[in-house]
Write a structure and sequence with these properties.
By secondary structure, the protein is α/β, with parallel strands linked by helices. Helix 7 links the parallel strand 3 and strand 4. Bound molecules: pyridoxal-5'-phosphate (PLP).
Length: 367
């Protein structure tokens, strides 16, 4: 073995920070089913009610796992045509919308190219841009975590290829103003609007895609449809970019199980919409309960999570204390978010357990 293998690494990867993923349920529960049942998992923005029961049935009955999957995911795209309201010629499917972020970077980013992200936001844009050798230009979110459109436009230069926007944004939960999106699209740069939480916000710019050559909308089945573990997302692209994406994508990027699950999910919208309604109702309850605590201030959210400001530099500590009680929420170890926790909306019993733990901790702080 070459002891100097590190010299062979691409130099720019040496400083790559990597993405900090959450721990899987199998690790948190150490493989115990009873322990898994007791865990209150509010750190991944997953659907706590799980996937449609029809997904399980369809997977059990699927006869073709020994054959390669459809590399054009025709059935998924046909089902999405009706759901999205646009022709399937605009749709690309990926192994999670994460993969579509990667493919967009592969398509547009050469070493030295610049990509704008408005931070704090989802970490995968930075990750994939850096892996591709691009330069991330971070524009801080402004007052109320709003996108600073003026600053974004001022940062555009000849080397800027892509701007990533997230609406509603993760982890802040707020929408990007439609007029900001339009203004950016008007500059000609590729504008990606990540709508991973569309089903919770009800706001989308997808119907605009066919009118432009540089607007892309990304969506996922991970959050609303309860398919995070199966990895399937999709993008709504201008038609010419679909052809280009097909050239850079791996031929069998979306596995057969994920395709079956997505089609069944779209066929069982009634069930999934009921879980979305339950989550939205619970978001209101949780927000109200959090507002009642003296040391926490929840921010309004259009998604299935609530970002909370925590008083007195306690956020990291609170995160640990909740963990000890089997309650997992998300803490981000970055300067701008050091005093915040992101809490996914769970079931009513999850809210009760979380709030009871927070009240107990509040008392222990002498409040
Ligand atoms: C969760 C999330 C995704 C990832 O979705 P996958 O389809 O599971 O890869 C993408 N974007 C944002 C903003 C997210 O929060």
């Amino acid at each position: 073995m070459n002891p100097d293998w590190k010299r062979l690494l691409r130099p720019r990867l040496a400083s790559l920070r990597g993405y900090q993923p959450i721990l899987p349920i199998e690790v948190l529960s150490q493989g115990s089913e009873a322990a898994a049942q007791a865990i209150i998992k509010l750190d991944g923005n997953e659907n706590p009610y799980g996937c449609s029961p029809r997904v399980r049935q369809a997977l059990a009955a699927y006869p073709y796992f020994h054959l390669y999957p459809d590399s054009h995911y025709l059935r998924v795209r046909q089902a999405l045509e009706e759901y999205v309201g646009l022709s399937q010629e605009h749709i690309v499917v990926g192994s999670g919308s994460d993969e579509l972020i990667d493919l967009v970077c592969r398509l547009f980013i050469d070493p030295g190219d610049r990509v704008i992200v408005c931070e704090p936001t989802f970490g995968m844009y930075r990750f994939y841009v850096e892996v591709a050798g691009g330069e991330v230009v971070s524009i801080p979110l402004g007052e109320g975590f709003a996108v600073d459109g003026r600053a974004v436009r001022a940062a555009l230069d000849g080397r800027t290829k892509v701007v990533f926007l997230v609406s509603p944004n993760n982890p802040t939960g707020n929408l990007v103003a439609e007029e900001e999106i339009l203004r950016l699209v008007g500059t000609g740069v590729i504008v990606v609007v990540d709508e991973a939480y569309y089903e919770f916000s009800g706001h989308t710019v997808a119907p605009w895609v066919p009118q432009y050559t540089n607007l892309i909308v990304l969506r996922t089945f991970s959050k609303w449809a309860g398919l995070a573990g199966l990895r399937i997302g999709y993008g709504i692209f201008p038609q010419p970019i679909v052809g280009a994406m097909e050239k850079v994508k791996p031929p069998y990027n979306v596995n057969a199980a994920a395709q079956v699950a997505a089609v069944e999910s779209l066929a069982d919208r009634e069930y999934l919409e009921a879980t979305i309604r339950a989550i939205l109702e619970e978001r209101g309850h949780l927000f109200h309960k959090l507002e009642g605590l003296s040391f926490i201030r929840p921010l309004p959210s259009q998604a299935n999570f609530i970002l909370c400001w925590v008083e007195g530099g306690w956020a990291a500590h609170l995160h640990q204390e909740l963990r000890k009680r089997g309650i997992y929420v998300r803490y981000f170890d970055t300067p701008r978010l050091a005093d915040y926790l992101r809490i996914s909306v769970g079931r009513p019993q999850d809210t009760d357990a979380l709030v009871a733990a927070l009240q107990e901790l509040e008392a222990s702080y002498g409040r």
